[in-house]
Write a structure and sequence with these properties.
With about 400 residues, this protein is α/β, with parallel strands linked by helices. Helices cover about 30% and strands about 30% of the residues. It has two domains: about 20-230, no CATH class; about 235-385, Nutrient germinant receptor protein C, domain 3 (GMP Synthetase, Chain A, domain 3). The strands form two sheets. Strands 1, 2, 3, 4, 5, 6, 7, 8 and 9 form a nine-stranded mixed β-sheet that branches. A four-stranded mixed β-sheet has the order 10-11-12-13, sandwiched between helices. InterPro entries: GerAC_N, Spore_GerAC-like, Spore_GerAC-like_C, Spore_GerAC_C_sf.
């Protein structure tokens, strides 16, 4: 009976914090400070500037910075500067400075995974040649909140270009357990005048003096950044890891520098493993479907033979891109292509024999690339104007 009397007092949200008492963090920047300390930058949304009715015309975000011997300490110390309770539950991005990435992100991942407010779906990036603070302090023209602007660029670039793709905290944590490998992280940098980047008038011009750009994929060995994949090599990485939603390929044609532009509509790569003389051999089998989006040279696109020739040329070009990517990744001795996982699935006994020295076997393994290409159509036009034919 006494217990029943106490039950109403035990119910309810005793530890709740109202929304107007929270400082909502949109993105987190993490950098090194000295030999062992961290500097944390918190991009906090100014709710009144977003709501509209109470807006004063000020910046929609404020960047708070604090240093500490641990990430947890730095964030707690930041409460001395932030008038509300810091909330990381809605943070969309974590931007790590390149110096920290090269030193190692293991302790950073420990905090991000352990802390109860952070979400495993947060996107992780590395600030190339810069600090996470520099990236998050840049005012952006499209999207009032820079974190949303960067997130949108990341998603759009993955959907249309394939030279980089989004990597979540959960992806990074899972890849840390791969023997002989490590995570991949997207690169981001500030182009233009760095001193102008945090100023509000940076976005008052048609041509902003500073802007944020998504660029490249960082290869990690264990928890340390060791190499950057750029342009075609980054696209090759996306192809092998089946991250391509759409991509572009430029094929040369004619003698005056004319080109054919192809859009990838479908791409699927399968990796198979086999053993030859006790050594692992991997076969990358790619099937891709595309369409011609641009034609500068005077060729007959109505001809089946011409289309078959372009398909073969596209296959050869794609094979070169993939082979170049594989060679560069093998030089890093970090299996970010998932070859070890494929060998473990297909031949557990051989994986058990090789896994303890997988970095060496991965770097020295033979890789064969097979590409099947199909061009479905030429969009709204067949022959190019340079051919002189009427449609």
């Amino acid at each position: 009976m006494v217990g029943l009397l106490w039950m109403p007092l035990l119910s309810g949200c005793w530890d709740s914090v109202e929304l107007n008492q929270r400082a909502v963090v949109a993105a987190i920047g993490i950098d090194v400070a000295g030999e062992t300390d961290y500097e944390v930058s918190l991009q906090v949304i100014v709710a009144d500037e977003i709501a509209g009715a109470k807006a004063r015309g000020d910046t929609p975000i404020v960047l708070f910075q604090e240093k500490g011997s641990s990430l947890f300490q730095a964030i707690r110390k930041a409460s001395q500067k932030v008038p509300r309770e810091i909330s990381l539950a809605h943070a969309r991005l974590v931007v790590i400075g390149e110096n920290l990435a090269r030193r190692g992100i293991g302790d950073t991942l420990d905090f991000l995974e352990r802390y109860t407010e952070t979400r495993p779906t947060m996107k992780m990036l590395v600030a190339r040649g810069e600090t996470g603070k520099d990236v998050l302090a840049t005012m952006t023209a499209i999207g009032r909140i820079p974190a949303n602007d960067i997130s949108g660029k990341l998603e759009t670039s993955q959907r249309l270009y394939a030279g980089d793709y989004a990597v979540s905290l959960d992806d990074v944590i899972r890849s840390m357990s791969n023997k002989g490998g490590g995570p991949l992280l997207t690169g981001v940098k500030v182009d233009g005048r760095m001193e102008q980047a945090p100023r509000k008038n940076n976005v008052d011009n048609i041509l902003p003096e500073a802007s944020v750009r998504i660029t490249g994929m960082g290869v990690f060995r264990k928890d340390r950044l060791v190499y950057w994949l750029e342009d075609d090599q980054a696209i090759g990485l996306s192809i092998v890891n089946n991250k391509v939603k759409s991509a572009e390929t430029t094929l040369s044609c004619g003698k005056k520098g004319e080109v054919i532009g192809i859009e990838t509509l479908f791409s699927k790569a399968n990796v198979h493993s086999l053993m030859e003389q006790g050594e692992p051999v991997f076969v990358i089998d790619l099937k891709q479907v595309g369409a011609i989006q641009e034609a500068e040279c005077p060729i007959d696109l109505k001809s089946p033979e011409v289309m078959k020739s372009l398909q073969r040329q596209w296959a050869v070009e794609t094979k070169k891109v993939i082979s170049s990517t594989v060679r560069e990744v093998q030089r890093t001795r970090s299996d970010v292509l998932g070859f070890g996982l494929e060998l473990e699935r297909s031949d557990p006994a051989q994986w058990k024999r090789l896994s303890s020295r997988w970095s060496r076997y991965f770097a020295e393994s033979t890789v064969r690339v097979q590409v099947t290409s199909v061009l479905k159509h030429t969009q709204a036009r067949t022959n190019p104007y340079s051919r002189g034919d009427s449609e």
